[in-house]
Structure to design on (536 residues):
C-alpha cells in the first residue's frame, strides 16, 4: 500500500515537472512568434514593477540598516568598522538585493498571478478565451513572464541602492561614523563580477516567479478552495526555487569569476 | 469568381456534417465520462442534447472544439479531425465556432463592450468604431444595448447569459454550441434566452448544439419559430414541429437516444420515458 502511494506520488511529481517544463518553455518562446501582446506586457510591468516598488524599497533600506548594525558590532572587535560600507554594499549587491527582492515580489506577484489565473480557470474564462480563438498562454502568461524578468532586474537595482542608503543611515546616525568613508569603501570594493552576479540573478528569479505563479494558476482545480491552494503552492514553490537557484547561480558565477 | 461566391456554390458545404463524432470515449482519472459516442450535426441543423446533470453533456461540447481531447475515437469539426490537432492549429477553427458557457464565462475585468467584441479586438482587423458598431448590433440582437459600458459584475444572471450569446454571435460563427444557457434561471428569463436561440436558428440558420436538462426549453425550441414581423417567438401550428431540430439523450456516458421529437415521445427506452415524465 505504502509502495503504491509512493509510486503514485513519484509519477505525479515527474508529470508535474514535465508539464511545467513544457509550459515554461512554450511561454518563453511565444515572444518570438506573433502575435506578441506588448500592451499586456506594459500593463503587467506596471503591476509588477511600479506596484512592488514600495515593498522592495522598504525591505532593501531596512536590510541594509540591519547589516550595518550587525556588522559594525562584529567589526568593531577587530577595529575594522571602516569597512562597514564594503560589507553592506557587497552583501546587498551580490546576494541580498536580488534574493530579498525575489522573495518579496514572489509573495506579492506569484500569489496574485496564481489567484487571478486560477479564478479565470474555475469560472471557465480560460476555456472561453480558448473557444474565442485566443491562446491564453500567449495572451496571459508570456507578458507576465517577460514583465516579471524585466521588472525584477530594475527592482533589484532599487533594492541594492536603498540597502546601501539604509546602511549609510545607520552608519552615520546610529554608529556615528563618517559617511564619506562609508560610501568610498562601498564604491571601491565593487567589481564587475559583483555587479554582474547581482544583476544576473533577478533575470532567473523573475522567470521563476512568473512561470511558477502562472503554472499553478492555470492548473487550478477544485473551485475557490483550489484557487487558495494554488496561491499557497505558487508562493512556496517560487520562494524555495529562488533560494535554490540563488545557490546554483552563485556557484556557477564564482567558478567563472573567482573572487 | 470571388471566394465568397465559390463558397456559396460549393455543393459539399451543404452536405458535409458540421460536426461528427465517431466512437468517442473520454475519462478523467476514473471510469469513462463518455463512452463510444457517435453522432452528426448536419448543416442548418439544431441538435438538442438532453440528460440529467453530471452525465458528460458539457464535456461533449468541449470535445467538439478541442477544449478537451478524447482518449479514443475521432471528432471532426468542419471536416477537420480536431482530436489530433495541436492547440495552435485549433485556434482558427475555434474562431469559427461560437460557444456559450454554462455561467456565461464573461471576462470580469472587461466591460460588456470588450467582452462582446473580444474576438474582433484580438483579430485587430477592424477599427474601434467598426468594432463598436458590431458590438452594438450584437447587443441589440439580445436586447441589451444599454449595457455597453457596464462590467459583468453589475449584470443579472440572465443578462450575463444574453451578453455571452451576443459574444458568441458577433463574428457570425459557422457553428454554435450552447452549454445549458438557461441553467439556474427563472422561467421568464429562460424563455427570453430560448427565444434568442430560436431567433438565431431561424434568421441565420446557423447549425447548433444545445445542451440542457430542461425539457421545457427543448420542447419550446422544437415547437416554436421566430416571427421576423413581430420580432417574437411564436408557436408553430398545432402538431407541427421544426424539422431541423432533433434530439439526443445521454445517460451514464452513453448516447441512448438520437432522433426527432416524435421518436423521442414514442421511444421504448425506459430511461428516456422516465426522464420525460
Amino acid at each position: 500500500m505504502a509502495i503504491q502511494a509512493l509510486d503514485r506520488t513519484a509519477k505525479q511529481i515527474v508529470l508535474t515537472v514535465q508539464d511545467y517544463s513544457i509550459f515554461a518553455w512554450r511561454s518563453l518562446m511565444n515572444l518570438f512568434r506573433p502575435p506578441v501582446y506588448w500592451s499586456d506586457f506594459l500593463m503587467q510591468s506596471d503591476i509588477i514593477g511600479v506596484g512592488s516598488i514600495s515593498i522592495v524599497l522598504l525591505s532593501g533600506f531596512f536590510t541594509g540598516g540591519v547589516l550595518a548594525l550587525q556588522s559594525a558590532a562584529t567589526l568593531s572587535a577587530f577595529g575594522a568598522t571602516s569597512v562597514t560600507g564594503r560589507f553592506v554594499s557587497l552583501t546587498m549587491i551580490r546576494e541580498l538585493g536580488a534574493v530579498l527582492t525575489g522573495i518579496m515580489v514572489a509573495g506579492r506577484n506569484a500569489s496574485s498571478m496564481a489567484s487571478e489565473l486560477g479564478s479565470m480557470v474555475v469560472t471557465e474564462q480560460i476555456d472561453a478565451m480558448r473557444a474565442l480563438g485566443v491562446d491564453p498562454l500567449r495572451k496571459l502568461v508570456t507578458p507576465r513572464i517577460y514583465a516579471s524578468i524585466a521588472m525584477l532586474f530594475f527592482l533589484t537595482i532599487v533594492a541594492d541602492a536603498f540597502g546601501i542608503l539604509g546602511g549609510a543611515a545607520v552608519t552615520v546616525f546610529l554608529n556615528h561614523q563618517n559617511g564619506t568613508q562609508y560610501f568610498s569603501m562601498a564604491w571601491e570594493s565593487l567589481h564587475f563580477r559583483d555587479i554582474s552576479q547581482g544583476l544576473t540573478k533577478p533575470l532567473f528569479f523573475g522567470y521563476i516567479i512568473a512561470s511558477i505563479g502562472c503554472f499553478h494558476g492555470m492548473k487550478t482545480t477544485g473551485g475557490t478552495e483550489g484557487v487558495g491552494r494554488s496561491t499557497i503552492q505558487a508562493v512556496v514553490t517560487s520562494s524555495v526555487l529562488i533560494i535554490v537557484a540563488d545557490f546554483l547561480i552563485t556557484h556557477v558565477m564564482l567558478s567563472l569569476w573567482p573572487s | 469568381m470571388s471566394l465568397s461566391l465559390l463558397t456559396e456554390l460549393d455543393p459539399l458545404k451543404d452536405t458535409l456534417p458540421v460536426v461528427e463524432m465517431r466512437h468517442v470515449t473520454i475519462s478523467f482519472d476514473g471510469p469513462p465520462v463518455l463512452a463510444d459516442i457517435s453522432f452528426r450535426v448536419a448543416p442548418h441543423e439544431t441538435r438538442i442534447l438532453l440528460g440529467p446533470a453530471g452525465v458528460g453533456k458539457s464535456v461533449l461540447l468541449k470535445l467538439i472544439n478541442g477544449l478537451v481531447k478524447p482518449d479514443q475515437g475521432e471528432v471532426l469539426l468542419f471536416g477537420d479531425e480536431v482530436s489530433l490537432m495541436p492547440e495552435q492549429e485549433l485556434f482558427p477553427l475555434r474562431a469559427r465556432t461560437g460557444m456559450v458557457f454554462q455561467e456565461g464565462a464573461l471576462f470580469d475585468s472587461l466591460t460588456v463592450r470588450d467582452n462582446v467584441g473580444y474576438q474582433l479586438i484580438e483579430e485587430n482587423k477592424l477599427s474601434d468604431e467598426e468594432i463598436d458598431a458590431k458590438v452594438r448590433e450584437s447587443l441589440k440582437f439580445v436586447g441589451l444595448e444599454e449595457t455597453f459600458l457596464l462590467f459583468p459584475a453589475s449584470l443579472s444572471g440572465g443578462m450575463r447569459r444574453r451578453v455571452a450569446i451576443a459574444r458568441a454571435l458577433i463574428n457570425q460563427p459557422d457553428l454554435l454550441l450552447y452549454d445549458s444557457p438557461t441553467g439556474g434561471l427563472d422561467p421568464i428569463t429562460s424563455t427570453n434566452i430560448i427565444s434568442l436561440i430560436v431567433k438565431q436558428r431561424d434568421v441565420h440558420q446557423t447549425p447548433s448544439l444545445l445542451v440542457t436538462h430542461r425539457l421545457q426549453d427543448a420542447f419550446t425550441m422544437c415547437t416554436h419559430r421566430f416571427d421576423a414581423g413581430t420580432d417574437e417567438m411564436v408557436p408553430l401550428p398545432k402538431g407541427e414541429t421544426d424539422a431541423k431540430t432533433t434530439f439526443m439523450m445521454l445517460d451514464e456516458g452513453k448516447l441512448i437516444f438520437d432522433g426527432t421529437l416524435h421518436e423521442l415521445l414514442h421511444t421504448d427506452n425506459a430511461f428516456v420515458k422516465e426522464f420525460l415524465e
About this structure: The mean pLDDT of chain A is 92. The two ends of chain A are 52 Å apart (CA to CA). The first helix of chain A runs from residue 2 to 29.
